[in-house]
Structures are given as C-alpha cells and as structure tokens.
Predict the 3D structure of the following.
Amino acid sequence: MTTIAPEQTEQAQETWSGQSVPRKEDRRLVQGQGVFVDDVKRHGMGFLHFVRSPYAHAHITSIDVSAAEQHPGVYGTLTGEEVAALTDPFFQIASVPGANVKDYALAVGKVRFVGEPVVAVVAETREAARDASELVEVEYEPLDAITDARHAQDDGTPTIHEDAGGNLMWHGVYEWGDLDAAFAEADKVVKIDELHFHRFNSTPLECDGALVEYNRGMGQWTITTNNQFPGFAIIMMGPAMKVGLDKLRFVTQDIGGGFGNKITSHPQLVACCLLARKLNRPIQWTEWRTDFHMSMSHGNERWFHETEVAVKNDGTLLGFRTKALDDAGAYLRYEPLGGVIWAQVTPGMYKWKNIRVDFTQVATNKAPVSPNRGYSRMQHLWFTERIIDIVAQELDLDPVEIRKRNYVRVDDMPYTTPNGCVYDSGDYAKMLDIALELVDYPSLEAKRADAKARGKLLGLGIGSTLDSGTNNFAQSRMINPELQFSGNNEVATVKLDIFGEIVVTLGTTPQGQGHETTAAQVVADILKCSVDDVFVRAGHDSYWNSHAGFSGTYASQFAVTGLSAVKGATEMLRGEIFKLAGAVFGGVPAEALELADGGIRIKESPEAFLPFMACGAIINANNAGLPEDLGVTLNCRYVYRPPFEVPDVEKKYGNLTLTYATQIHAAVIEIDPETGSYDIVDYAAVDDCGKRINPQIVEGQVMGATAQALGAATHEQFAYDEDGNLLTPNFYDYHVPHALDMPPLQTGSVESPSPFTPLGTKGMGEGGGAGIHAVCSAVQDALRGHNGALVYDSCNPYHRVWEMLNDPAKGARVTVTGS
Amino acid sequence: MNATTERSITVTINGTTYEREVEARKLLIHFIRDDLDLTGSHIGCDTGNCGACSVIVDGTLVKSCMMLAVQADGATIESVEGLADGDELNALQQSFRDHHALQCGYCTPGMLMSATALLRANPHPSDDEIKKALQGNICRCTGYWNIFEAVKAAAE
C-alpha cells in the first residue's frame, strides 16, 4: 500500500488537530467491551419476532394470533389492526400523490413487499418467539406484484397504495440554463437510450435492533437502539404515537456500522414501544440478517432515459437533459428526498451550464429504499461519469482529456453551479494527476499491450466524485413546499466538572467514525491540554442537552456540524475559565491570562496558577463570595448552525450543501475475454476533504467507501424475481467483498480547506461511489479495443461483462447526431 | 428437565468454568452471549458467513453460530474477552489499534480470534496466508487493508 501525503501547510505550533491520534474508542472495542444494542439486557425483557409477509402484494383477509398467544413462554402479540387503532400513519415528506400514502408500524389491511412485518410476537426467549410466530395464522389474497419501476405506471398495473391513486409517488422537473441554445450550439448530440443504477446497500454487519422500556408513571419510553438519526426518528414517531417528543428518549452507545441504512427503523421502533406499553415489560428486538436484507433501507434504484448530451467537437460539454426514474420500493420512509438530494451535485464536477432533469419516483413491491452511503448523489454522479465516458468513446476523445477540459478549475473556486450550489474549494485536475501517477499512467499502453499478449483486455477507469456534506434541509421544500424544514444544526456541550474533568457530549451517533477522538483533538487544542484529559461520552442520549432537531450521524457532516459545535462550546468554556480566573485573581483582565498545563495563569507571574480542578471545584462546590454577576457555569452548550438561506423553491435554485469533499479514483482492470471475469490489478483513491483533523481516520473512511463501492460494482445486488421474492436474502447470495477480494490500493490526498467552515473541514465518508464509477469506466475502456460495448449498468458481475464481450448490443444503446 | 430438549453442560471460557442447563437447540453463540453475558463475540449473519462470532474451541477456530452449545460440553473456549492481560492489550490488539484496523468494531472480536488462531498455527504467515485466514470474516467498514497490515505487523 502506497500513500501520497498532502502538501503540508505549515502550522504555527504543534496541535492535536491534523495528527493521527490513536482512537479513544479502540481500547474498549478490541477487548469486546463495546456496548452494542443486542448487548443490553433488562430483567424480564421479552424478545420480539416479526411475522413477515410471504407475498409481495396481497390483501390480508384474516389474522389469528390465538394459537401463538397460547404457546409456552409467549407474552403477547401486536397486529396491524391494533397499530391502526393506537397510532396515526407516519407523517409523509412527499407532496401529493405520495403524501397520501398511509404507512404504519405493521401492515394494515394489505402487504406491499415480501418481508413486510405483519404481526409482532413477544416471548420469553428468542426461540419461543420464533416458534410462536409460526403459529400465527394469516390469510392472504394475493395480487399481482410490480417489480420493474419502468412498468409501474402502465395501464392496467395494480395500484400499490390506493390512497395515492396510482403508483406515481413524486414528479418534478428541474431545468437550469438554456437547453435550446446549448443544443443549437452543439456540434454533436449524443443520445443514450437507457442507463440503470442498481439496487444494493451497505449491509452493516450489525443488523437493526432496540431495547425499549416504558415508564408508565411518566408515559415515557427509553429506546436503546442503533438508529443513526434519532432527530429524524423522534419527529416521525412522536406524532404517529400522539405523544410529545420528550416522551421518546433515544440512547445509543456503540453502533455496528450504519452507512445510512439505520435511519429508517422508526416503524419497528413504534411496534416495540406499543408492545412495551401493552405487555408492561422491556421489549428486545434484534433483526435477523435475512430480515435486514428483505426489509431495510435498500439504496435507490434509478434509471436514466432518453439522455441527450450537447457537446462540441473538442469535447466541451454544453449541457444534458434526461428523464430519471427512481424506484422507491413499497413505502416512502425517507423518500422522496432522493428526488432532490442528487441536485446537490447537479453538474457533477463539470462546468456544463444547461441541465434538465425530469425526475419521477414510483412505488414498487420491493423493500422501501432509504439513504445508503452516497445517498442519491452517488446515482447521479455515476450518471455524469457514464456520460463523460460514453461521450469520450463516441467522439473518439481521451477520457482523461475530456475530464480535464470540463472539470471546474481551481481558480473558479468557490464555484456556483447552474442550480446555485457553491463548490467551496478543490483542485480536481491535480487530484486526477495524482491518481494517474499512482497507477503509473505513462506506462498504460505498454501494460495494455502486455495484457493483450497474455490474452487479456486491460482497461483504465476513472471515477470523479463529490461528497457533498452538511445538508441545507430547505431542499426538502423542492419536494414539498409545505414542509417547514430549513438549514441544519448540531449541538455539543463541554463542561468542567467538580474535579476538573473536561466532559464533552455530542449530538451525534457515531458508527465507527471516531467522534470521541476527533472531538477530543479539537477540545485539547483550545484548552491547551492533552487529548487524554478530555472525556467524550460515548454515543448519544437525547436526554443529554446535546440533542437537536437534526442530531445524528449521516450525510457527511460531523467534521463540519459536530466539530464546529464542539469548537463553539469549548470556546465558550475557555471564555468562562478566563472570567472566573480573572475574578479569583482579584480583577485580572483576560488579556493578562493564558491557558497552560491544564489550568490558567497570569502571563507575567506564572506562579499565579489556577488548575482546571480548582476552577471546577470553585464553581460547583466552593462558590461563596464569588461576584453575583459573574455569569459563569463552566457548563457550556453550543448549537452550530451553518450559514444557509432558503432556496428559490420555484426555480429550484440555491445552495443545498455547505461543503464538497472530492474523491478521484483510478482503476486498472484486466478482463479474461473467455469468461468475462476480471481482476482489479491496480487501484488509486485520492481524497480532498479540506482540513483533516485525524488523517488516519479520514483514510480509513476512504478505504471503507472504496471497498463498499467495489463490492457494489462487481457483485452486490438486491435482485428480485418477477413475483417479488428477494433472491439475495443473506451473505451466501449477497456477496460482499472478503479479504481475498481486495485489490492493491494506493491512496493520495490533497487538502483544500473549506472557506465556509470554522475549522476548514469538509464532511466526508461517503466517497460518492467513486469505485463504482471507476470500475464501470475501466470495463468500458477494456472493451473499447474489443467491440466497443458501452457500459449500461452500475453493477457488472462477470456474466454481464461476458454478455457485453459477445454482443455490444448488451451495453448501452447510443446514437450520435451532428457533424 | 426434558433430556431430549435440555441438557446440563460445563464449559470453560477464558479460564472460568460455567455449568448451565441449556436447550439442546441453542447455538453456542447465543449461549455465550445470552446465558453467560459474554457479549464481546457478535452475530452478523446467522449463516456462518461473517465470522463475527468466531471463538477458539479446544484450540480450533470455530464460528460459534455453526455449533450447538451442547456440542461444546466439556470444552475449553477462548473468546475476545480473554485476549488482554488485565488492562494490557496484547500485541495483536495493540496492532489493530495502531493500524486503524477497526472502525465500528463489530467484526473486530471475530477478526482478532481468526488472527490469533492463524498466528498460533503459523507465526510467520505469508501475505496470502494472512488474507486466507481472514477470508471467513466480513468487515464492512475498513476494506480489510488495515486489518491485513495489523496482522502482518503483529506477526513481525
């Protein structure tokens, strides 16, 4: 493994930030002392098991739980009928028609995908709950299933949600610039009939789960869970359960991976809450692997139809138009936000000015889609990269040159996109050069010839992506103008405790991103102490005062929102320490004081030293005689609010995210033309996420995102048969990469600090699916010298490559007009 | 106690001997986690693919979701909780930390046990031998590169 380090910007003094400080989290995790949700136990708890639908689409004609309830060890059950009586349907983000969808914790009257929870059974043991589940009698009247979004709106197609009046969930047209002028100016118009981004997700190793306790006297639930976006879950659950939000306390310690897939567990959590109240005992729910695959948070499957690209003969891109079709699955649990999130990266990394996207989202009888690492932007960035490579091939241009010709340039930064987003900083061409250098680009043709001599087809692929981070939630108004969300926020508290401990609480729900460590680095720099002196509480508790409406860990934002909150709170605390010391020293002004060695002292007479322990003790336990108006608590809370405006909803114009981390990947592959199998023989990932607080953690995120992308590009698919049965419901059929699958990896990095964030950081971690784009690009490059097949799908397992090797018509269908 | 559905078993885990009555169908991993409260070993797949539940049973690396608790009667078992010497991390644990070989930490206990079994049987493994020894353990966070580096460094 090779690493190219960024060019260092000289720092005035040694700081904790910028160093690969060993993670605080690791000590417990390598000893098996992490506390994950399934590790938490309570006296008398009952284990919940869901009875799930075997049909993709069916009316429920009857449910009989009597035999199950009489099974030894069973505590009780919950049915959809009870849920409908006790709760309101979940609030819908969509405008009409999606707004009319009725979604409950359990199926009510009808099932809409295989694996949908129909009845919940609670018993003394996991085994008894499963046994009893088999005794639940459910009668169904099966209906035809829709599994191909392209036919969801055909005449005669069954309607999945009658209340929505059809299978259209959301439709919107985005148009910026002057398309007619762009196409009139173009030398060539490249038309791409259809492209397909497949359905998969990141399959965190720990499935969803919860331990839910009900406090009857207070009418309050404590939900120990691995949900990664409590801010969202609470606002979905409270109104449905008709309770105030403070009645839902969310607690988390360690989470075994999330990747966006653990945002939408609110229906299952409501079932747990209702049962905890009904049965008067703690409810433990741990999802089985097959349950997760069948029902949780698939990534958005998307088609791009009738794409037209306006381009000059020299490769200058003028604009494109396309019809995007998104498959939401059976319910809108976070959707149709995917219908706007992509717009954060509308032009990809390129300077085309004229863009039209006609976006449609439909329901199908498949698992609901929800955020998955790179959510919605990954699909769109894959599309823009596909365009680039297809145009390059059709116009006989070099894939490197066409990228460099059209990339937003370093001297264009900050760059305003056609839809009003502001790319904060970055040097894409330089990053591409580093990536190419890492894969030894100058010797590419010699390697291609060498591969050919060995009977192999060699291809180089590039994936250029943006990891847009820190959402402006006002973009949801482009989906539904009635919504009252905008901006973003995150909270941290920092206090000096009675014995001088520095204690930090975060509003985030880390799943391996090392928040305890990076937060401590920021605090230690401000308070001039060691990271070892900073105690960051693990996980999340919405009863700490560090919970806000958008609290959670999602969408590449901790390094901006979370750490800016930490910075703000720590600076407040520092100010209070100065104020207190000034008073204790008898009216010494702040300018005459300085922090050092875990305390505060007078600059001119350093022996006048007040350790943090004394500060904490004075305020908390020894405060007689302090000035009445001192205004010091040594317990500081800061809410970071990024600088956003509400976009122009009519024109769909405005800044949708604060930062744009960048990744450029280069892949070299060798295809065996006999079989279609291929090996990645060289791979480089170059990252720019602005100021890096902990480079080792950043690189770990880059590696993880790369591995997930390579798995998705080559194997991972949530494939369904025509009856709506999931064909990949476990890790036998859903092949995620193993240690032997990993190619050699070389990493590089550039640091372009964000001018818009307090620490110069950018959110990162999603990687924008760069590996998927790079592999698709490499497969196409390898085929370019064979039969010129154009890569059509984001997933290219060996059999699909073999098909393209033998018939270029199996690839994308493209026509070029103009001269 | 019904002799066909329940049995009394004795196992020694990390030096402590436990005697418990268990359902005959209970998986070893559920016994370790639920009955003995040793929650360091995890469950990720239910099908023997992911290795998060890996422990060493009588010297042999085992995915404990693929074995019944009653089959472990009389066995000596090692799990992640037994690796450190008090608060002192062993060389492999320290190497995982130094090389950022873990993120969420959910697969880590199983990874550590697989690597422990490898290094005991083969103290100087080749690169390929390390990868083969880890191929039964799924990690979704790291891409394995740093895990490989950590095991390699610990071997050296």
Summary: Helices of chain B lie at 28-35, 91-98, 108-121, 127-134, 145-155.
